Amino acid sequence: MSDLSTSAIVVARTRDELRAARAELGDGDVAVVMTMGALHEGHATLIRTARRRARHVVVTIFLNPLQFGPHEDLSRYPRTFDADMEICRKAGVDLVFAPTPDVIYQDGDPGVRISAGPLGAVLEGQARPGHFDGMLTVVAKLLHLTRADSAYFGQKDAQQLLLIRRMVRDLDFPVDVVSVPTVREPDGLAMSSRNTYLTPSDREVALCLSQALRAGADAAAEGPSAIRRAARAVLVAEPLALIDYLVLVHPTTLEDVPEWYRGEALLAVAGRVGTTRLIDNLPIKVGPGGGALEVFSDVHAEPPAQD
Ligand code: AMP
């Protein structure tokens, strides 16, 4: 039996190195997990899920400048390459593509980009103008460069996942998009590379985000306004969390669900704790027997009819 912890792992830094290493993997059944590095158990879970389902797994580690605003945390984003490699090795990755920005954007900032459209202008897109265009542009490039047959993304970044699914559908990318449930710390905090910015007291404060989502999910049977009310009550009790938004929206339109709505909805929250902007969400089934879901059952579900 092969021992994954000692299996060889190839690191490609240039396009030529990637092309050569990718050719070695052969055609068909190659999965990609795209990351910005500073890997944690959430990333490892994506990799292991991909590993179980695909013949080969490629991980990309690329801090994409195009998706960071001028006042965001690109320069202080944690860089932990050696530890990242160890996680990749243990999780059974075949190939790591870790390029620098000049490899990805060989002619400088690209003039032609993917537009996220209206779904990229709300929620995170409103707080971070241009973020989703930059994210989709690099995802498209990495899909082309890695020639992956499937790509694994976390439910943690729900709007990102939705937009990637839309891009793949709207622009006919030949790739299967697979979503993986959010991995949490034992106390409920969603794992994130940005959690390393939190001081111990910030971290206590940050718990209100996941607790609010839980409280909302516990009220799922009663309908949208009860869900929003229960979640908001938790956030209001923690004034040190500066909440940007708390929404209960349809999973594919990101529009607020009306009071009569029953079915799957996304309860999402974003806010600042100390110097750190955090996001979290729970897929929820609204209505009788409702509650938290791991991921949406049918991500291509039709939007609700308007009243
Ligand atoms: P990032 O390195 O933050 O760009 O994340 C890379 C991938 O890992 C994205 O698909 C994220 O949604 C996913 N991811 C990050 N944190 C988690 C988590 N706590 N649980 C599941 N997936 C995650």
From TrEMBL:
Active site: H43 (proton donor)
Pathway: Cofactor biosynthesis; (R)-pantothenate biosynthesis; (R)-pantothenate from (R)-pantoate and beta-alanine: step 1/1
Residues binding beta-alanine, per UniProt: Q67
Catalytic activity: (R)-pantoate + beta-alanine + ATP = (R)-pantothenate + AMP + diphosphate + H(+)
Its biological purpose: Catalyzes the condensation of pantoate with beta-alanine in an ATP-dependent reaction via a pantoyl-adenylate intermediate.
GO cellular component, one term: cytosol
Stated name of the protein: Pantothenate synthetase
HAMAP family registered for this protein in UniProt: PanC
